[in-house]
Design goal:
Blueprint (H helix, E strand, L loop, with lengths): L4 H26 L10 H29 L5 H25 L7 H71 L5 H17 L5 E2 H16 L8 E6 L5 E2 L5 H10 L9 E7 L5 E8 L10 H14 L4 E8 L2 E8 L6
Helix pairs in contact: 1-2, 1-4, 2-3, 2-4, 4-5, 4-8, 5-6, 6-7, 7-8
């Protein structure tokens, strides 16, 4: 936390003016106040300057002591130092006040007249410090939350890449092993997706671009089979939508991993549409073969759940249904906000 000396000085001058004006208000109200001062202008000005400086001494010493000892939680040393600095400042104020007083003011008399003011200055310094410290803590907690969020998202995104790469390398290995004519096309398609995954480090991408890579991924998966399987893929857009990359691919990947691939009917139905408020509705429904039944989710969908909680807190809805031989995912997103 940085010391805010300039702001402290300005705030003190305002407080000093208010507290002295408040002292004279009763006399002003009763008509007893008089501005007559027999001292010369230079003496009065010097007296005022010295009084402001000595009063600020209480504020600065208290503020600086709190600044040094409070964050490190040395409370006993803090208390002892505050008391010692208060006594020292009070003695200095007494000595300074005698320079501009024609009468020799006794310490007891000075104590009765100035102890309340001195206490006010100390309290003011404490309030100023703790307000600043509270603001500093709140700002630091926000920064830590952002850092933790970014670290979590980076980790979750790094999980996608090896998982995605492992599955597709297995597919390509199978094509190469069986000397399929689709091997080169599969390698080319995978390289394009990897280029997207490695070099597109944007926090968000357009939905249109993400849909393009979804289609590329489906084409890559189709190369596993002798002939393309039947599926439906519908995309309609009425507004420009931004979303984090790799948010939808795990659902398609999960469908190809656990789905009952069919050639005589559409075993997979994917629908993506936008909403007028720059939101999105994603739906993915696929048949599941008995032998392909698995726990709902897996690393891919569980990864998406965590990312959604970080990226769209309270602004998304993910419904997953696993009934009979059908697996359905429906994801509704509000407009993405960079938090």
């Amino acid at each position: 936390m940085k010391k805010k000396t300039g702001i402290l000085v300005v705030a003190f001058l305002v407080f000093y003016s208010m507290i002295h004006l408040g002292w004279y208000l009763p006399d002003l109200y009763n008509g007893k106040f008089s501005l007559v001062d027999e001292r010369s202008y230079d003496v009065r000005l010097a007296s005022l300057v010295v009084d402001v400086i000595l009063s600020f001494l209480f504020v600065w010493s208290t503020y600086y002591t709190l600044y040094i000892f409070y964050p490190v939680r040395k409370y006993l040393l803090l208390a002892v130092t505050l008391i010692a600095t208060f006594i020292a400042c009070f003695i200095i104020s007494y000595i300074g006040s005698r320079w501009f007083s024609e009468d020799h003011v006794r310490l007891s008399q000075f104590f009765r007249g100035q102890i309340l003011y001195s206490a006010f200055y100390v309290v003011f310094a404490m309030v100023f410090y703790f307000v600043q410290y509270a603001q500093f803590k709140e700002l630091r907690e926000r920064e830590l939350a952002v850092q933790n969020r970014d670290s979590s998202l980076a980790f979750l995104r790094s999980q996608i890449n090896p998982h995605f790469l492992f599955n597709n390398l297995n597919n390509i290995y199978s094509l190469v092993y069986h000397q399929s004519d689709q091997s080169l096309a599969a390698i080319s398609g995978l390289s394009e997706l990897l280029r997207y995954m490695l070099y597109d480090t944007s926090e968000t991408i357009s939905l249109e671009k993400d849909v393009y890579y979804l289609e590329k991924y489906i084409e890559l998966e189709q190369l596993r089979f002798e002939k393309p399987c039947k599926l439906n893929f519908n995309y309609t857009s009425t507004s420009l939508v931004q979303l984090p990359p790799f948010l939808l691919i795990p659902f398609i990947e999960n469908a190809f991993k656990h789905g009952a691939i069919a050639y005589d009917h559409a075993w997979l139905d994917v629908s993506i549409c936008t909403t007028p408020d720059r939101g999105m509705i994603f739906s993915c429904t696929n048949d599941i073969g008995v032998k392909n039944k698995d726990h709902v989710g897996g690393i891919g969908i569980e990864n998406v759940r965590k990312r959604l909680e970080l990226l769209y807190p309270g602004n998304h809805r993910l419904d997953i249904e696993d009934e009979d031989n059908t697996f359905k995912v429906e994801l509704k997103l509000g407009a993405y906000e960079n938090r």
